[in-house]
Amino acid sequence: MIVLEARRTFMKMLSKKQVSELTGLSRSTIDRLRARGLFPQARKASPGRVVFLEDEIEAWRLTLPHVVGDTTHAPEL
Any signal peptide, and if so, which residues (predicted)? Predict the structure, then answer.
């Protein structure tokens, strides 16, 4: 008999403040990027509380372009 082990992975939930600290983006920039579809969407964890999934934030970070040289004229997100 083969027994399959069910593994549950729990995704870490982050507040907007934590996402801001993790990404270096202001909360208003996060809101602008979300409105334009350029940032992971928040999820409603409970009434009055929205969270972001850490895995989705990390995946988004990996999609950012690499900048070579002078970053003072990097394209705006």
Answer: none
